[in-house]
Structure formats: C-alpha cells, structure tokens
C-alpha cells in the first residue's frame, strides 16, 4: 500500500522534481584559465549590463518585501547602496531620496524578522552614512529584534545597556520586550526572567506585553504556579490585562486540562467579546477579536464536543464576529483524532469550511496530514497521510514546512530505506519548487531531518546532502552550534574516505562558521580522527591515519574563527598520532614544537600527560622522562600550574615498565616509595587503583613476579585478609595510602605474567587465586588453567613474545591486554 501511494506521489510530482536540482552551470573561466570559443577579450560595449538606478532598485527592494522574499532583498541591497552612492556624487542635493524613512524601516524590519540579522546590521550602519537617515529609536528597536531572532539576545541586552552612552537614546519597554521574546523563542525561561530583572534595574517597568510573553512561556514549561504568580504580579503592579492576556490564559489552561481556571477566563473573555463592536474594521482589533473568538470556540469544544464548538462558531458568524483560519484550525485539532483515511480528513475540512465560511489553509491541512502520519504503519497511516497531502495539492494548497515535516518524520525515522528516501526527496522537491516566499520555504527542521537521513550508516547519500547544504546556503538557513556539530559528525561517519568526510565538514561549516565554538571543533576533530578507512587519496601512508594536511586545516579553521586550539585539542592529536601504525618520535616531537610555539595555548596537566604518554608509546622513553621531570617542578593541585596527578603517575610507571632498563626500574621504585611516604617532590598525590595496577604490571614486565605476587595477595588483599604489619612503608612525613583491593583486571594481568614466566609460576599463582580470592576465581578460571606449559604452548609463547618485543622496539602500541587500561587511568 505504501509503495502504491509513494508511486502515485512520484507520478504527480514527477514533472516538478526534475526541475528541483538543475545541473550546476559550468564554472566561469578565471584569469589564469583559457576561455573557450574565444581568443580575445570580448568588447565591454556589447557585454555590459545596463545599470539600474537607485530608484529602480528601491522599487525592487520594496517589491521583494511585499513578495516575502528576503533572499532577493539580500541580493539587491548591495547594488542599491552602490547606486545611491553613485547618484549622490553625481546629482544635486535636491534630488528625491529613493526610499522614505518609513520604507527603509519596513525593509530593515523585514530583514530582522526573516533571519537576515547581518543585513539588518548593515542597513543600520548604512542609514546615517549612505542614506542620510539619522538613527532613531525605531532603528535601534529593529536591530534588537534582529539580534534576538538570530539567537543572540545577550548581544541585544549589551546593545540596549550601551545605547545611552553611544547614541544618546534610552531604550523603552518595547525594546526590552523584543529581547524577552527572543529568549522565549530559545525556550530560555531563566533568560526571560533575568531580562525582566535587568529592565527593572534600569528603571523600565514591564508592561502587559512583557507579562503576556512571560505567561505564554510559563504555560509552555508547564509551570502553572508561575503563571498564577505572574498574574498576581500584574495586579500588584497595576498592569491591566488585555484581550491577549485572556486569550493566552484560556488556551494555556485548556491545553493543560485546568477547566476550572479556564472557565473563569472564559467568562471574562466572553463578556469582552460581547461588548466589542461587531462592525469593527480595524486590522489590529479584528485580529485580536478573531483570536478571542477562536479561544471561546476552543473552550466550547473541550468542555462539550466538536459539534458544540461548530455551533458556537456559526453563532459568532451570524453575529458578524470575525472568524478566521485560526478558528477553523482550532476545530480541526479536535476533529482529527478519529480520522482513519485521507477521504475522512477532506470531508472534515469541507464540513468546517461550510460552517464557518472560511477556506481551509495549509495549517488546517497540515493538522490532517500530521494526524494520519501518526497512525500505525500497519493501519496504513503513512499511505493515507501521503494521499491527504496529494489531495491538498490538487486543491491548490501551497505546502509549507509544517505540512511536509510529519511526512518526512514518518518516512525517515527511525531509519530510512531507499524507497522512503526517494519519496522524501520528491516531497522536498515539491516544497522547494512551489515555494515563492519566505513563509512557505523549507525551514531548518526540514533540512535537519533530511540531513539526518543522508547520514544514515546503512543507506548514506552524501551527494544529496551536498545539494541540501547548497540549498540551505542559498536560502540563508543556519543551524545552531549543537545541531551543526551533530550533523557534521553524522555525515563524516557516513563518508567513504577522509577527503569526503572533510568535505562534509567544510560544507556544513560554511553555512555559518560563527556558530561553532572550541568545544564543537574539538568534538568534530575527535570524530574525524576516530574514522577508519582503508586508504585516503590525501595521504600515501599505508595505514588509515587521517592525513596531516586535513588535520592542519581543522586547526587553521579554529584559529581564524577565534577559537584557537587548546590543551584538549593538542592532547587529542598527541594520543591519536602516537597510536597510529606509522607513529614515530619525530611526529610527536613536531607536535611538541607546535605546542611550544602556540602563543594562545595555556598548557595544563592533561596536555603534559598526553605528551608524556605519546613519547612513551612511540618508544622515546628519555623524552617522556624529561616531561616527568619538568612536571615535578610544578606544584600538584595548583590549577595555575601543570603539576603531576594520578594519571601522570600511571603514565610514568607504564613508561618505565616498557623501558625495562635498570635506570628505569630505579626511577619507578623511587617514585613509588616517595608516593608511599608522601614525599614526592611535585606534591602529595594519593595513589589510585590504576596506579597500583600499573605498579603490578611494571613488576611483571621486569620479571619480578614474586614482588608482583606479594603486592596483589598482600598489599591489595581483601581487608579481612590484609596483614597490617609495619614494613617501613608508612614511615615519613605522610601516612601510607591504603591500597585498594585487587580487581579482576589486576589478577588477570598477574596470571598472564605468571604464565609467561613458567608453568610452575602459573600453577602457584592460580592456586593462590583459588585459595585467597575465591570471589574472582569463576571469572579468571579459564585463563588460570590454560595449559601454556606444554611444548607447543611454550613455542607459541616465544613467538608471541618475539612479536611483542618487535612492536615495542618500533615504538608501537603497548602489547599486553592489561596495558590497554593506561588511557583510562585517572
């Protein structure tokens, strides 16, 4: 059934989908590239475009605003400013201005409310310099709207608080309300409250608009007590409620099921509507009355039935009160619960249209489509939703994002298939090609859903994702930092090479580089270095490490964006390149040089730990010891200095364990004794379980199995078995650390070293585990009883040791399974 519906949709939309993504035009020849079909420069006379006057461009700007086309306005405005500059230098001062102040404010407000905040800021700056308009409070008000809608209300507040000093103007409650509304769009209730407090601190009292915005947000958060406190605060401060207040309260109480409270509001609102003149023609009054009527119809529907709501709407219609598509959409919300087919949805809308005398718009149809799409797939919900969408299109209803989004969600989540992706693509193409205005254009939520589908690990489609990102860039649609980061990571994981993954990052980042902060860049870089590919065209190395030039591109982007690499960035790269198959001390030394030369960097303990571990993993033990010695000069625990911590100790012990030289053993023994006495030069560090595990492993690697055995079954024995004999370790300035109880991992490491030592040692340690750690015996029994003392086992063991020794000589990974824990030690 779904395939049949999808096929019908493809047939209906086929003629439009072929035009959705035209082939890109050939790249124009550059100065360095030969031009085809010509061997000489074309004459400028024949190819010069006619120059439009400032008056012509002003008319086109106004028309773009009327047509709801911010993209066109953004393209025209630079040419308009240039034309104004040219005309002002060549004409007399008495010539008529191409735009009136009112028209300019309309254009600037249009840019501010359609996400063109940078354009609004440019218009603000151009007003006095290019257009001769002195800044007024209205200019500042529109700029605050632009900043707030762009998700930067903190910048808007800073602007308001500096207006008096920079422009000699004092912001009013209207400007502050724009910031409050910006925080509401961000669903930041704390930001709204903080803004109201700052208003009052500046001597600006909130008005009814402020309270209405706050009450609506409190309802969205489900904070009914907060709603009642806000209403009481209004009464206490003498702020009178208006129709918007009553509408907000009525809808809010109805949506949360507070019928008693809603009934009180309904009585007040009903009396206000009854006293309103029925022949009101004022645009503002009519819109308010229409909202109030919709609220009363909603109450009647909730308290009684859909038929009662329709009956009340007919009564209002007969009285001449304004009914609108909002009233119809309100009734549709309560009539779709029983819908099972697209035909039933169309019949519901037809009946409501006849009763109200209002034609169903895309919002009403979106409600029907969404209701059907939510039905189980087994009941044909998605198929009927697709049919309902097609019925709406047949009735010349122009779709918008709210109409498409439920279908995309049902098609693509939780995971898409090739068929559902094809249908989703046709839906998007229909929306993109039929949209003629900002209001009906695809919004961010549509692109988020589609990009998520493109990054599906089973059915990735990076080619379409690039096309979508191009559309987003053309339409000026941006995502926030968290969403951008998520989609970059998802698209990179769906790539088939490092080059393709970097291209996905580069394209998404280009939408708005300013939304990414240092944390986002580190997250993206971490995901990029975690990718595994067989080879990369950017690197001739035989392993699958990320190409160094691409890594440097990431770091360059971080610097140019104002978020230079920090300690976490370098620590990530040190760990990554030290674990690569081609890892070498030279690579780590090069990164070390970059760290020294980075003037923006403030090294910390985790970075030094990573540097020390990287040198150790590549076999540069002396370099690792130099890092340790440098860290000893700093005080541990001081947040301003990179002193040692427990992770540093584990790294030092692991380094000495793999070094194995007598000097390395003496160094580790000295450090361990200093830790026990609390006399370490770098400061007191309490030994952790990971430190004890590292010490056991070091003893095992040095062939000192008896000592390792004593630590595990003596110092790290369960409390009830632990001997409390004083052996001198507790002497000194500090009390001896209490050793943790040996874990399963500790015992496993000891068993492996015992098996490597001799069959007798393995039998002895296995028996001690059985006798002294019966709680761990079931988990380690298979390892403990492995018969590696046979001649065949001894031969396999020698081969294994030879391979491990070769890896250690080359500076590769730590070879034993127990040492894999080094990176988790804290």
Automatic annotation (TrEMBL):
<feature type="repeat" description="PPR">
    <location>
        <begin position="172"/>
        <end position="206"/>
    </location>
</feature>
<feature type="region of interest" description="Disordered">
    <location>
        <begin position="1"/>
        <end position="42"/>
    </location>
</feature>
<protein>
    <recommendedName>
        <fullName>Pentacotripeptide-repeat region of PRORP domain-containing protein</fullName>
    </recommendedName>
</protein>
<feature type="compositionally biased region" description="Low complexity">
    <location>
        <begin position="32"/>
        <end position="42"/>
    </location>
</feature>
<dbReference type="GO" id="GO:0003729">
    <property type="term" value="F:mRNA binding"/>
</dbReference>
<dbReference type="GO" id="GO:0005739">
    <property type="term" value="C:mitochondrion"/>
</dbReference>
<feature type="region of interest" description="Disordered">
    <location>
        <begin position="787"/>
        <end position="826"/>
    </location>
</feature>
<feature type="region of interest" description="Disordered">
    <location>
        <begin position="716"/>
        <end position="741"/>
    </location>
</feature>
<feature type="compositionally biased region" description="Basic and acidic residues">
    <location>
        <begin position="718"/>
        <end position="727"/>
    </location>
</feature>
<dbReference type="Pfam" id="PF01535">
    <property type="entry name" value="PPR"/>
</dbReference>
<dbReference type="InterPro" id="IPR002885">
    <property type="entry name" value="PPR_rpt"/>
</dbReference>
<dbReference type="GO" id="GO:0140053">
    <property type="term" value="P:mitochondrial gene expression"/>
</dbReference>
<feature type="compositionally biased region" description="Low complexity">
    <location>
        <begin position="1"/>
        <end position="16"/>
    </location>
</feature>
<dbReference type="InterPro" id="IPR011990">
    <property type="entry name" value="TPR-like_helical_dom_sf"/>
</dbReference>
<feature type="compositionally biased region" description="Basic and acidic residues">
    <location>
        <begin position="795"/>
        <end position="811"/>
    </location>
</feature>
<feature type="repeat" description="PPR">
    <location>
        <begin position="207"/>
        <end position="241"/>
    </location>
</feature>
<dbReference type="Pfam" id="PF13041">
    <property type="entry name" value="PPR_2"/>
</dbReference>
